[in-house]
Amino acid sequence: MVRISAIFIAVCMVLIAASIGFVVYLRFGFTGAESALVALGTLTALAVYNAIAARKRDRLEASNQLANLARGSGDLARQLAEFGRRLSAMEVKVDSVIDRALATAQPLAAEIEELSTRVRQLADSVAAHELALANDRGADRPPPAANDETMPSALAPVAAPTLAVSLAAPATSSAASPAPAKVAAFAGLDRDGIIAAIKSAIDASRIDLYLQPVVTLPQRKVRYYEALSRLKAENGDLVVAGDFLSYAEAGALMPKLDDLSALRCVQVVRRLLLKNRDIGLFCNLSGATLTDSGFPKFLEFMEANRAIAPALVFEFTQSAVRAMGPIEHESLAALAERGFRFSMDNLTDLRLDARELNERGFRFVKAPATLLFNRVGIASTDIHPADFSDLLGRFGIDLIAERIENEATVVDLLDYDVRFGQGFLFSPPRPVRAEALQSIAADRKEAPVAAPAAGDAAAPTSGRAQLARVVGRP
Questions:
Q1: How far is CA 449 from CA 105, 261, 269, in A?
Q2: Most exposed: 288, 333, 368, 450, by fewest CB within 10 Å?
C-alpha cells in the first residue's frame, strides 16, 4: 500500500512538472531546452518538499509511539511498586505468624521433652526392677530343661544375622545365664565349657564370614552386603550366630569377636570396591565394643581405613541402641567423625526417633517384613507401617525390609515404598573365599588405605556374578 501511494505521488509530481514546462513553452515563449529545465527544477522542488514532509510525518509518529511507550512503562513501574509493597506487607504478616507459632510451641516442646525424659527414667527403673526380679527368680529356679526354645539353625542367618545381633528377647535375657543349646558342636559342654570353646575359636580365628546381599526393589540389583558370622567348631561343624552369641556376651567375648569381624569386613570391602565403587557392607557390632577398654585401638584401626568409610556401615540392634549411654554415644560420635555410618536392625517395634537417629549418624534401619505388615503380636507403633519409610526418608534414613522369603512379600513391600530388601528369596548367605581375606597380621601393619582410583572401578555387575567373585559356593 505504501509503495502504490509513493508511485502515485511521483506520477503526480511528474505531471505537474511537465504541465508547468508546457505552460512556459506555449505561454511565455521559452525555448524547448528552457522549458525542460523549468520542468526539471519544478520536479526537483516537489521531490524535496515531499521528502521533508514525509520525514516530519515519520518523526511525529515516532514521537507519539515513544510517548505511549513511556506512559506504559510508568504504569508498569507503578504496578511493580504496588506489588512490592503488598509482598512486603505479606512477609511481615507471615513473620509475625511464625513468631507467634514458635512462641506458642516452645513451652509445649519443653514440656514434651521433660515428659519424654521422665518416661525414659521410668522405663529404666522398671527395667532395673524386672532385672532384679529375674535374678531373684533365677537363683531359686532349677536349670532350664533341654527342650527350651532355641532358634532353628536353618533360619538363624535371617532371624539373628551376625556378630552383634542378639535374639529378639526381653532386656533381661542378656543378663541371665544362657541355657545349654541344642547344638551338636557344643554337645556335652556346660555353660563355661561352651564359653571356653568360643574363646578358643576366636583366638584361633575360626570365625568364618558369610555375605548376604541387600538388593534394590523392584530392580533386585545388589547394592549392599551384610556380613554374617559362623563359628567353626573343632569337629568341623558350623555354628550360626544365634547359637553362640548369647554365650559370647555372657563371657565378655563380644569386643574380641567384633574386632576380628571388623578386620575381615575391611578386607572384604577393599576387594569389593575394586569391582564396584557403589557397593557397601554392613558390619555388625555390639554395644559392649563401644565401652570396651580396647575401643581406642579399634578406633585407630578404623582411622587408618577411613578411606573406605563410605562403603562400611556398622550395624547395631534396636535393643543395643536404646540401651546406649553417654559413653556409647561418644564412641559413635568418634566413628561418625571419621566418616562411618550406622544401621539399626532386629526391630521389635516401629517406635523410633528418626531425628535423633539421623543426628547420631544412622542412615539405615532394617525391619522384618512381617513387622511392617503388622503380622506379629509385638508390632506396636505410633505410626502406620505404610508411612514408616516416608518418615525415615524425611530424615535421610533408608528403610531395608529383611527376612523376605516369597514373591508375595515383595509385591506388598512395593506398596509400602520400601527401596531395599534382604532375605533368602534373593540369596542365602554365602561364605567368603579364603583368598579374599588377607592375613590378619599383615593387615595390622598396613598403612592407611586409599580409595580406589576411578580407573580401577569396573562397571556394576549383576548380584550373582559380583557375589561369586568374593564368596565361594556353599
A1: 49, 18, 11
A2: 450
